[in-house]
Amino acid sequence: MESSSELDRLLFFEQARKISEATYASNPLDADNLTRWAGALLELSQFQSVPDSQKMIQDAISKLEEAFSINPKKHDALWCMGNAQASFAFLTNKEGEAKPYFEKVAQYFQQAVDEDPRNEIYLKSLEISAKVVLSPYLNSYFFVRRYGVIECDPLVRKGLEKTVSSL
């Protein structure tokens, strides 16, 4: 852990996860709670090893699917699902395995925008998802991952940073 703010963040989201889990026990039909729980899991996944992170993201996806069974048009859950799909895609080692997740990202962001068209975060997320997925640097990212390079290749990083900064 790099700083006390990261530790604070970890503790905050772990507490949120525990509260959501307890709330679920008493009210499993609370779509807001399921969405909060999924969001906490996504945040906590950033502090895990890749396999543990993938499991945590899959758990978040499961919570969001449960929220959709209660309210299929819940815009914040749709947006959160787009983020979960993107997070999982970036943790896969092969482009072919990641592609279906990336395709779902834009679909979920679009659904969130459809439900709340004035939400600037949703609009920006949709815009960024289209640009990043179409970026030629994404293929380079998977090339680097495929051959076991742990650090992001500097050219890939520069390309991704350029793509994001141009948004």
UniProtKB/TrEMBL annotation:
It holds the Pfam family TOM20_plant. Keywords: Membrane, Mitochondrion, Mitochondrion outer membrane, Protein transport, Transmembrane, Transmembrane helix, Transport. InterPro entries: TOM20_imprt_rcpt, TPR-like_helical_dom_sf. It is found in: Mitochondrion outer membrane. It is a single-pass membrane protein. Signal peptide: none annotated. GO terms for biological process: protein insertion into mitochondrial outer membrane; protein transport. Central component of the receptor complex responsible for the recognition and translocation of cytosolically synthesized mitochondrial preproteins. Together with TOM22 functions as the transit peptide receptor at the surface of the mitochondrion outer membrane and facilitates the movement of preproteins into the translocation pore. This is Mitochondrial import receptor subunit TOM20. It comes from Gossypium anomalum.
